[in-house]
Specification:
The protein is an alpha+beta fold. It is 32% helix and 24% strand. The protein contains 8 helices and 17 strands. A 9-stranded mixed beta sheet has the order 1-2-6-7-10-13-14-15-17, covered by helices on one side. A hairpin with a 2-residue loop joins strand 1 and strand 2. The longest helix has 25 residues. The radius of gyration is 23 Å and the shape is globular. Bound molecules: adenosine-5'-diphosphate and magnesium ion (MG).
């Protein structure tokens, strides 16, 4: 009898194990004695300052792996470095891409389609013309803008995702600067998760992405910068778990024309060739997909409040957003209402 009941127990255990849908087994794990202990790593990469914080007993090796991963991705994507995969593509016009560059280019082309061309990585000749690539800023002439504009249009890129082969249109060059940091924060968060980190937050030049919640179970709190205030002042705090919070702002990188006093920022409207004048000065996107968040913060900035709101209404299962216009008015999509803390009055955007 005892032998039979033991057999029954074994059978039951096998059934329970094979019954798990994803093929994984919940194992009772010992609580991590260092769950509330954190380490932070600072680094400069991708033309910006980054900070990475991870909690738990594997935190130090996870941070070391993350830094190596960021440097590996930087070497692939940086358009300003001659040896990067993107620079080589820009020189030769065609390439078979490595896995990460292929994945990122594929997403960039998808988002070009879905945003009606607002997000367009072929704006690179315009970035060069305005001096954003060399910091040798100047206002181009109208005819220079028109010549560079003739090279813009991701619809002229041919890309075969099965072979990862890309061919640019004649004279075209691409710049992943509007999406690469989001892809990188997403990659770091995925890496942390694979290594067994339960709680982490990374900030890549203001692109924030969180893993899990804080070790005490409370959500992460991310501040939204006041575009009109001195650096460091915020207009709102949002509480998030497992989300990226990514802002594009005209106050981030710009120059002032000494003759006219007019300022020009680095988010280029592919329809005009000029820095976008959509009436917005900051767009924050909150989403579980860091790559999407980065590309959309740039895209919604260009679309402006009205078109951006319509885009959100059609894609509200993918992200939430905060828009700040040049008058300082705040507009917040309804999914953020319960997680946003702010003393400012704001307009709630609904579906
Ligand atoms: P930041 O990199 O400062 O966080 P963004 O994410 O908004 O800001 O990206 C701006 C960068 O995106 C520019 O520096 C340029 O490399 C690139 N870019 C500018 N305009 C566009 C555009 N219309 N579509 C895609 N990328 C763009
Ligand atoms: Mg962006």
């Amino acid at each position: 009898m005892r032998g039979f009941s033991r057999l029954l127990c074994c059978l039951l255990a096998v059934l329970l194990l094979t019954g798990c849908a994803a093929g994984t087994v919940e194992v009772e794990t010992e609580p991590d004695p260092e769950a509330e202990t954190s380490s932070t790593q600072y680094l400069e990469a991708m033309d910006t300052f980054m900070s990475l914080t991870a909690y738990g007993s594997v935190r130090d090796e996870a941070l070391e792996a993350a830094v190596a991963e960021i440097q590996r991705l930087e070497a692939l994507f940086t358009v300003g470095s001659e040896d990067s995969e993107i620079s080589r593509l820009n020189r030769s016009g065609t390439a078979v891409l490595s896995e990460d560059t292929a994945a990122l280019l594929g997403r960039a082309l998808e988002i070009y389609e879905s945003t009606g061309g607002a997000f367009d990585i072929t704006v690179y000749p315009l970035m060069e013309l305005w001096g954003f690539t060399t910091q040798d800023y100047r206002v181009p002439t109208e005819s220079e803008i028109q010549s560079a504009l003739a090279l813009v249009g991701s619809d002229r890129i041919s890309y075969d995702s099965t072979t990862s082969t890309v061919t640019l249109g004649q004279g075209q060059s691409v710049d992943l600067g509007g999406i690469a940091k989001g892809y990188t924060s997403q990659t770091v968060i995925d890496l942390f998760e694979e290594m067994g980190v339960a709680s982490a937050m990374v900030s890549l030049g203001g692109n924030v992405q969180c893993l899990g919640c804080k070790p005490d179970g409370s959500p992460w709190r991310v501040g939204i910068q006041n575009p009109a205030g001195t650096e460091g002042t915020i207009v709102a705090v949002i509480e998030v778990e497992n989300q990226a919070v990514i802002t594009s702002g005209s106050y981030e990188r710009y120059f002032t024309d000494e003759d006219t006093g007019k300022t020009y920022h680095h988010i280029i409207d592919p329809a005009t060739g000029y820095p976008s004048e959509s009436g917005l000065c900051s767009v924050t996107v909150v989403t579980s997909d860091g790559t999407l968040g980065d590309a959309l913060s740039t895209s919604l900035f260009i679309m402006g409040l009205e078109e951006g709101t319509a885009y959100w209404q059609a894609h509200s299962d993918e992200f939430q957003a905060i828009f700040i216009d040049t008058e300082g008015n705040l507009y917040v999509t309804e999914g953020l209402e319960s997680v946003m803390l702010s003393d400012e009055t704001y307009t709630l955007l609904t579906k």
